[in-house]
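Journal club prep — side note

Before the paper discussion, L.F. wants everyone to see what a predicted structure for a comparable chain looks like in token form. Sequence:
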Amino acid sequence: MTGDITGKTNADYTTYATAAASKVTFSRSFAPSAVDDNFTVAFGTDALNTITVTGKAATVSAAADSTIDGTATLRAVTSSAVTVSSVWTNQFGVAAANQAVASSITGRNAHIATANSVTNAEGRATFTYTDAPLAGVTATADTITMNGPTDADETFTVNWVASLGVSTITLTGGNTTAGVTAATVTVKDIDAGLDGASTTTHSFVATVKDANASIIVGAPVVFTISGTTAAVLSTYVTVNTGATGTATAYVYGWVAGTYTVTATAGGVSGTGTITFGQVGTGDERAISATATGSIVTAKVVDRFGNPVSGVNVYATKTGAGYFGAGTTKATTTTNAAGEAEFVVAGGSATVTVSTINYDSVAGTYGSGQTSAPKGYLYNSSSATTLATYAFTAYAAGTSVLAEDGVGASFDAAGVASATATVAADTTTADTAQTAADAAAEAADAATAAAQDAADAVAALSAQVATLISGLKAQLTALTNLVIKIQKKVKA
């Protein structure tokens, strides 16, 4: 039975032994000590069932590992600056911080004074200098030695040239393979988790060749990415090509979209593209709802505002309206735009959409981050547990220490539910009323016309009666006149 201790201060060492169908587990915490600390645990009386664990103080010794960052052989243009770095660890493989490292130069720039440096929290020490040979020096190379806590641990060679001789740079990564962009893109995930967007990165490999299509080793390649919502990991902004003529950088983004990555060396550039988005569920942070006509649309986004697909959305309603064929509840999943639609029929209704299943017990949290308090990844009823969910504060990156907590300011509280109101569809009733109003107006017009006609007839009748009366009077007068004339004639 064997086990490895961690080498970390006050860490617990835990292992177990199995006897027949049972398992026995024990643990022991080691405190930092300059002397060995050990204990023995026996399972039964058989010596074969005895485990002895020895704790040792963490030290950086001759047996400790040190590794070079990048390549040991570099090519640089004369009069430019170069940076080399190495990482030291203790016997447990844990970064050895605060260790003195002395750097020295022999060769072309042997006259340059050097100063000691100290390893950082990641066990890394760096050395930077600018090519400035003394007059008359003809050497074209430097040897840099970085002496760690023990012997001469790491050695670099810098070859100084008038030109890097770069002819072509091709990129592979994201949507691009050997400089050719794919017809169909593959979306790369955006990390909206605890430590921020820079936690999940995606690689780009630049291949650097000369005019003869031969690889160039040791050439510094500078990587950039378009836009302000994506970045190259700071420790990989400048990378020297290795033995295969390639340099690898890592990029990340926090807003969905397609970005252009550019690699430049010796005045020559190569480009590729990468598409970022939310891949899968778990990072959903907020849900919203809008109503258009009879449709309620729920939208689910992460804390950066990116749509999240595949999230289950549950809908309930109040009011006369209903879903589908008369149901009061409905569920569906968000599409690529982070949207889920619910159709309401039969009248007005207020619809609530949620990431919490309507059949869940009270107090159930929404999916992903939708029930999280401001500043936290998830919610928890335990203050102790909640504290472990606090977003990592932002820390800017350097050439030797990567950035952390990117996007920490996007920490608004999660939103698990939202509502929207659909007004009843009155189109049919409105059409019928319009027709009825038109019919009534027509009837009124007809009545008025009939009355006008009757009035006209009455007026005409009165005029005719008057004329007849006048004629009668005239006939009577004429008759009387005739009679008078006849009487005079007889007389």
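L.F.'s comment for the group: Residues 427-490 form the longest helix (64 residues). Keep this in mind when we get to the figures.
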